[in-house]
Each structure stands twice: as C-alpha cells, then as structure tokens.
Amino acid sequence: MNGVRIVLTAFTVASWGGLHENVIGACKALHEAGAQVMFIGTEGAVCDAARKLGIPFVIGVDWNTGISSVRQQAIDWHPDLVFSQPFNSRELGQEISEASGASFVVMFHGIAHDNIHLWHDGLDRLLVTAPSIGAAVEGYSFVPRDKITVIPNGIDDAILERPTIPLSDKLTSPVVAIVGRLSHDKLRMIEGGIAVARTLESEHGIHAQVRVLGDGPRRRDFERRLRAALGADRVAMDGWLDPSEIPGRLGASLICVSAGRGALQSLAVGTPVFGAGARASVGISRADALEVAADCNFGDYVPASDLNVSVVESLHGIMADDLYSQFQKAGRDVVCNGRTQSQVDRRLVAELSAVVN
C-alpha cells in the first residue's frame, strides 16, 4: 500500500477496550504496509496510542463541539480511502468520502447497525468481526453479500507464547474474571458471572472471587448486583487496566465471562470462556463448539446453533486437570485459526488494497 492515503476515523466512548485495540491494530498494520494514515479519533488514550505508533497525522477531536475544520482538513488531504468505525466517525468518514471521491469502508464490531440500510449504497466494503454480524446486516439491512467481508479481532501473536497455567494452580486462589465495557448491553455478562461463581461453589466447593476488568456508565448498578448476589467480600471492581496487564490477569483466572475480543484473548491465554454478549449467553462451549461461539462473537449475536448447555453441565466438563488442559489446547487452536494479529493484519491490508486498486 505504498503511498496510499487513508483517513481512519474512530468514535470511542470508553477509556479503553476492544474497539480501541482493533483500531490501533489497523493503524499499525496499514502504517507498516506503507500507507499514509491520517487518524481522526476521540482525544485521549486512543490518539496517544496512534501517536506512539508514529502515525504522521493524528487529530484528536471532541465529537460534541463541531468538527467542520477537521472534515475540511481531511478532504483537502485528498485521501484515496476512508476507513471508518460506526456512528459519529462513520458520519464524518462518509462526508469526507463523498466530498473527496475516496473509496469508503466501514467496520462493524458488534450489534449496532448504525442505520446502514440508509447509506450502504455509498459503501465500497463493510468489514465485520464475526460472520453472524455480516448475516444480520445482510438479512435485516439488505446489505449485498458481496460487500461484506469478515475480518475477526486479532490477538497479539506473542500472547500465544505464554505458558498456560494448570487447573490445579489456579485453584489455589480461584478467580472468575468479568471482562468488558460496563454498559446497558452487558447485563448478560454480569448475570453470567454470578451464575458461574454460584455454580463453582454449589457443585465444586470452590469459593471464587469475582473480579471485574472494565468500566462504564453502569458500573455502580453492576457492582450493586454482584455484591447483592455474592457478597461484598467476593467482588472487586478493578476498572480498565493497562492492556499489557490483561493477558496475565486472564491467564491466572479460572473462568472468564466476556464476549468479543475479551473472550478471544482469554482463550489465547488458556482460560475457558463463558460467552455472554449483547444478544445471547452462549455459556461455556464444548471444545468442539468453540468455532461456533467465536463466529457469533461469543454472544454478541445469536449463534447459528444452540450452544447454551447448563452452567452445571459445562463446568463439570472442564473441572478436572485433563479436561481443563484439553480445553486450553482447543481454545488456542481457535485463535490460531485465522485470529492472530499477524493473520488479521495481512487480511486487512489485502482487503483494503483490493478496494483502492
């Protein structure tokens, strides 16, 4: 992509999360492929991360105070392609594309359809992180199938080099990790954490601590629910952590309750996942059903087949050293099957190159 000019727009709300990691991963891949990248994002952590990559044009904005000068700056830069994330950043990207004649690509990460039925005619490509997202926008928003490409979340290749921790070691200080943005669409994640913790105690005599890695507008409500269900002494609200800390925390946890990138990262470090997303709770999938769970983003969309076995049954299926070890291997195999960051980077660069060529 030597010399290709790409405007990448990203509207983010939380301090950090899966969307941020996806966007920064894309910036890095395109920059290293020789593209000239202009990054327009919410001022703060995501722009700081882009600057650390050496992206030559990073423009931090407050999406509520007007962005007309930024829009004109991007148009005058004469981009070849605009690559946008949903909502405010999609609207800005679409305006830049229409005014400059640049190709237009949008990426969907979860359940939000962003009224795509109103604007997909001007779209060159829609990238989605899971097949179920593509099926939903095709079926409900009438986006042509040939415009949709699946490029999953990518997990840092180095994480797969970390040694997995055996079940027996994790049981010395058992932790159930709940990982994600604490917003209204994450209630199933909290309910899943409660169910897993209660079942570990009632069926296996394991008194696990529940640690919440994430933050958001529903933090107080979710903390209250967890403490009421499990007791104040068993709940810790750790907030957003530095991304470098998360693999270690997840790898040491007995079970992770999450969806999307958090769930995939947990599999990469050898921790079974209770999938709980915006549209479904898929539970702890059998080792042979993990690909199906990954394809629905671990519950962000309804899975193609029924995955939700009981918590009791699913925990019995992993709570022995040999069974847990088998699950760890199966989880890593899912990540290695097209979901490492290097694999995702190659697919992204190839897809965007095809759009502009």
Produce the secondary structure layout:
Blueprint: E1 5-10, H1 18-32, E2 36-42, H2 45-52, E3 57-61, H3 68-76, E4 81-84, H4 88-100, E5 103-108, E6 125-128, H5 131-141, E7 148-150, H6 167-170, E8 175-179, H7 187-204, E9 209-213, H8 219-230, E10 235-237, H9 246-252, E11 255-258, H10 260-268, E12 273-276, E13 281-284, H11 290-295, H12 311-316, H13 321-336, H14 341-356
Parallel strand pairs: 1-2, 1-4, 2-3, 4-5, 5-6, 6-7, 8-9, 8-11, 9-10, 11-12
Antiparallel strand pairs: 12-13
What's the quick description here?
With 357 residues, the protein is an alpha/beta fold. 42% of the residues lie in helices and 17% in strands.
Architecture overview:
The chain has a 7-stranded parallel β-sheet with strand order 3-2-1-4-5-6-7, sandwiched between helices. Strands 10-9-8-11-12-13 form a 6-stranded mixed β-sheet, sandwiched between helices. The radius of gyration is 20 Å and the shape is elongated. It is an alpha/beta fold. Helix 10 (260-268) crosses helix 13. The mean pLDDT is 94. It folds into 2 domains: 5-154 and 340-356, Glycogen Phosphorylase B (Rossmann fold, 3-Layer(aba) Sandwich); 157-336, Glycogen Phosphorylase B (Rossmann fold), CATH 3.40.50. It is built from 14 helices and 13 strands. The N and C termini lie close together (10 Å).
